[in-house]
Design brief:
By secondary structure, this protein is α/β, with parallel strands linked by helices. The chain has two domains: 273 residues, Ribonuclease Z/Hydroxyacylglutathione hydrolase-like (Metallo-beta-lactamase, Chain A); 183 residues, Rossmann fold. 32% of the residues lie in helices and 22% in strands. The protein is built from 15 helices and 22 strands. The strands form four sheets. The chain has a seven-stranded mixed β-sheet. Helix 15 links the parallel strand 20 and strand 21. The radius of gyration is 22 Å and the shape is globular. The model has no long low-confidence stretch (mean pLDDT 90).
């Protein structure tokens, strides 16, 4: 068996692993690179394999850094099935066409800015229609029920507790009369977080791929995080400003609404108007409500959640661009939740442009910010940023609520790894920036005595 690490190696985004034996070739994820100057070129580079020669794809979950290049894969010849949980299939049914729309709009915007004699503007990475075409290949699977995508492969999807439908992939690969168990963690959730269940403990693996987004740090505990959330909103309202929350449309938006609902029910939330300014987040919230069987017990008990925030003082799901632009006139008392989560696209950039220079306002960062993104620059303390060509002075308060992360922190990753009955023969630490991946690898070696590798991009390993 040969593994090739074609993305999310010493970085967080672009998740893609090619698995090959003499009998079968398949991908675990086919994600988009996000953040930094190199990402556009990496998303367009030639695949390191023939898409038509792949037998199938195993998709861990819906986030674009895991699913976002599937339409391009299909356009370039892939015709096999794409296996995913039913919740993931529903979510990518919204997310991939939305991504295609962004690609088309970016191409049109670039074309308008091309001067006479400039080089030709690239075609969209893929179109809305190509994204819809890729959805026809989806095959839904159920947690804990084996699926056999090939005579030599069995796979079981386990709940990863990251977002709705996210999965740990437990893959049995048979070759030359021997069976090898390959476990790909996908993105592991932080235990004890609301809505989704805790990550499933897996007991056996010969080869392990483990994520490391927060492999070098511990999150703040949730009660303290909620106190900070309450204080930021209350302080901003007192100052007469707005709170801008860049949030991933899938997962983070729904969790933020959940926590706001809890605070409101406990009488801890001041009078505010809450806007969800993301059509995709609105659709994802509706999908989430349909999959209530996947909720944890706490989420099921919160009636306000089942009504998409009806227990809050006011929640408005903003649909049209005109409604979104009207929010620019709101000067105080608003919590505006908008995509994208890393501030590099979407409606949140407009809200940042109108609120970043106002000292009475706040920006709440609730998720990981990749290197090279606007969100990362804000977290790192940039005093001036450029949005839509305008140079802005950052006067708003920037708050990072790490305790709301959907990714497991280092202690949680180590506890999950300790659940294996014996050490995997080989462990590969992926899906983390180099410092985070190396820190987790060092702890796995020191604490558990494992043989661990942090692979380089485009490197391979053979067993």
């Amino acid at each position: 068996m040969k593994l090739s690490f074609l993305g999310a190696a010493r970085e967080v985004t672009g998740s893609c692993v090619l698995v090959e034996t003499d009998e079968v070739r398949f991908l675990v994820d086919c994600g988009m690179f996000q953040g930094g100057r190199e990402a556009p070129a990496r998303n367009r580079r030639r695949f390191a394999f023939d898409p038509a020669g792949l037998d199938f794809v195993l998709l861990s979950h819906a986030h674009i850094d895991h699913s976002g290049l599937l339409p391009r894969l299909v356009r370039e010849g892939f015709k096999g099935p794409i296996y995913a949980t039913s919740a993931t299939a529903d979510l990518v049914g919204v997310m991939l066409p939305d991504s295609g729309h962004i690609q088309e709009m970016d191409a049109k915007r670039a074309e308008r800015h091309v001067g006479r004699g400039a080089r030709r503007v690239p075609e969209p990475l893929y179109t809305v229609q190509e994204a819809k075409d890729s959805l026809r290949l989806l095959r839904s699977v159920t947690y804990d029920e084996p699926v056999a995508p090939h005579p030599s492969i069995d796979c079981v999807y386990r709940d990863a507790g990251h977002i709705l439908g996210s999965a740990i992939l437990e893959i049995t690969v048979r070759q030359a009369g021997l069976a090898t168990t390959l476990v790909a963690s996908g993105d592991l959730g932080q235990p004890g977080r609301p809505i989704v269940r805790d990550p499933t403990i897996v007991e056996n693996a010969d080869v392990l791929l483990i994520e490391s987004t927060y492999g070098d740090r511990a999150h703040r505990d949730l009660p303290a995080t909620l106190v900070e959330l309450e204080q930021v909103i209350a302080g901003t309202v007192r100052r007469g400003g707005n709170v801008i929350v860049p949030a991933f449309a899938v997962g983070r938006t729904q969790e933020v609404l959940y926590h706001l609902s809890q605070l409101a029910r406990a009488g801890r939330l001041p009078k505010v108007e809450i806007y969800v300014d993301s059509p995709m987040a609105t659709a994802a919230t509706a999908i989430t409500a349909r999959h209530h069987a996947l909720f944890d017990e706490e989420a099921r008990e919160l009636e306000a959640w089942r009504h998409n925030g009806s227990g809050l003082s006011a929640v408005r799901f903003v649909a049209s661009a005109e409604e979104s632009m009207a929010l620019n006139a709101v000067r105080a008392g608003a919590v505006i939740i908008a995509a994208s989560g890393m501030c590099d696209a979407g409606r949140v950039r407009h809200h940042l442009r109108h609120n970043l220079e106002r000292a009475e306002c706040s920006v709440l960062i609730t998720g990981f910010q990749a290197q090279g993104t606007l969100g990362r620059r804000l977290v790192d303390g940039a005093r001036r940023v450029r949005i839509f060509g305008d140079e802005l002075t950052v006067r708003a308060s920037i708050h990072t609520l790490g305790g709301l992360s959907a990714h497991a922190d280092q202690p949680a990753l180590l506890r999950w790894a300790a659940g294996f009955r014996r050490a995997p023969r080989r462990t590969f630490v992926v899906h983390g920036e180099a410092s985070a991946a190396e820190a987790l690898a060092a702890r796995l070696e020191a604490d558990l005595g494992w043989s661990v590798v942090v692979p380089d991009l485009d490197s391979s390993a053979t067993f």
